[in-house]
Amino acid sequence: MHSAINYKLRCATCQGGGRVTVTEEDRTYQRARTREQKNQRLDGILDATRSILDEGSYHDVTLSAIAERVGCSRANLSHYVGSKEEILLLLYIRSLREILEAMKGIDPGSLDVSSITGLEAASDALAAMLASHRDFGRLGALLTSIIETNVRLECLVECKREIIGMMADGSSLLVERGLFDELADSTRFLMDLSDYVAGLYPATHPLPIQRAACKETGYPILSYEESLRDFLTVQLVGYKVLKEKRDDS
């Protein structure tokens, strides 16, 4: 079990206080007692939150809406999470975990990094994979300005530690796959990618009023996946050129 989820389970007893009206629905929901069952419940909360996001937007995500989707009261939900932002933070962590697993599945033999064409192909594969994990972009766009401002320090620290660990694993994996020769370059690449996606996702997924204004004025709306591909290509080619220059100096 991952540390961020373990943290949530350890801190479940810290949520709220006072007397709570227990419904029949709550009694059914509270039957989870083992660590595995509790982990499954938290996964269900994250799944419900993701489905609400898929159907609407961040503003549609409320503790009441999540509780209704899961099938429990809001008070019972508080045994697992402290705020909707903590749920979104855990959902973001889960998306990073899924991306890391997807990266592990990339066939090293399919990556030819000896040429620009090969690097472009690698960028295509990475862009398609990243675009398929929507939470990386849509929650990354809210991470520093909204999500991380309404969570407890202990939760944020635990999640940051897990991000650092996944960043290290991802950096090592990119070196193993031959995309980078140095861990420092690979790590910087992943950090720049996260920052770029945080700004790119909202620009390529405008709200209805923004989309209407773009249509009326002819303002371009870029493709998320194509923009990712172009960014990745420029970055990979740029690091390759920099390495060659360092080797020649």
UniProtKB/TrEMBL annotation:
Q: Which residues form the HTH tetR-type domain?
A: 39-99
Gene3D superfamilies for this protein: Tetracycline Repressor, domain 2 (1.10.357.10)
The record's annotation in InterPro entries points to: Homeodomain-like_sf, HTH-type_TetR-like_transc_reg, HTH_TetR, TetR_C_34
Record protein name field: TetR/AcrR family transcriptional regulator
Q: Which residues carry the record's DNA-binding region feature?
A: 62-81
Q: Which domain of life is it from?
A: Bacteria
**Keyword annotations:** DNA-binding
* Pfam family name, one: TetR_C_34
**PANTHER family annotated for this entry?**
HTH-TYPE TRANSCRIPTIONAL REGULATOR PKSA, HTH-TYPE TRANSCRIPTIONAL REGULATOR RUTR
A molecular function GO annotation: DNA-binding transcription factor activity
